[in-house]
Amino acid sequence: MTFILLAYRSFIKRIIEEKNVQHEAEVLHQKNLVLENIKAQESERKRIAVMIHDDIGNRLNILSLWLNNLDTKGDELIKKNITTQMSSLIDSARSISHSLYPVNLETVGLVLYIEELIANLSGRINISLSVSPKFQKKDIFIEVQLYRIIQEFTTNVLKHSEASRVWIYIKDNQTNLAVVISDNGESFEYEEVKKGMGIKNIESRIKSMNAVHKWKNVLNKGSRLIIKIPYNNEFPD
């Protein structure tokens, strides 16, 4: 009986171990699918953004220069209207390009790119950025995902939260990069909105970095997103 009992326990243990291995393999497979999906999206976004930035944007700038040298025979009103429309088109092309993919992020760096985002939103909401003095440039994949998360968070705040302030903290720790984004708006019940595209996009990007996160929301007092990204990850080019 003892032998049978031990054999049975060994059999059950082996089944549990095999199921755990299968579960871990499935989790890894899902992570890889998310990562590949985001890589494909970013690649296509980058292609379109570069096309808009380098082709359409440059063509509009050239047209603007030609217009400034054009003899309109004293009809300054026509010239002024065309110049205004041209300037608006240039701004729109730049805005569309940035929203699709942060084209210059690799050369400018994450911090300056966030500061540009803050400057663009300064007329709509008060955003403060605090960065650790020890912060060092990260892998471009990480920086693009973080910029996207901050962009998505602020967009959601502007659309839904009635907040007047947003705070962004970025800190290099010994084993991870910590990012905290919070606002003073109405907040939300996570279980009710977790299926929304905004939350899905944020959490998919967090998962693609193999990071951990936590939402801390208090209704009518604000939302807080805490992200910790381990340094020992390997990321795609």
From TrEMBL:
InterPro entries (alphabetical): HATPase_C_sf (IPR036890), HATPase_dom (IPR003594), Sensor_HK_TwoCompSys (IPR050482)
Any one Pfam family match given in the protein's UniProt record, by short name: HATPase_c
Enzyme superclass (EC): transferase
Entry keyword set: Kinase, Transferase, Two-component regulatory system
GO BP, sorted A to Z: phosphorelay signal transduction system
Histidine kinase/HSP90-like ATPase domain span: 143-231
GO molecular function: protein histidine kinase activity
The enzyme's E.C. designation: 2.7.13.3
Record carries keyword Isomerase: no
Reactions it catalyzes: ATP + protein L-histidine = ADP + protein N-phospho-L-histidine
Record flagged with keyword Nuclease: no
Name of the protein: histidine kinase
Organism: Chryseobacterium taichungense
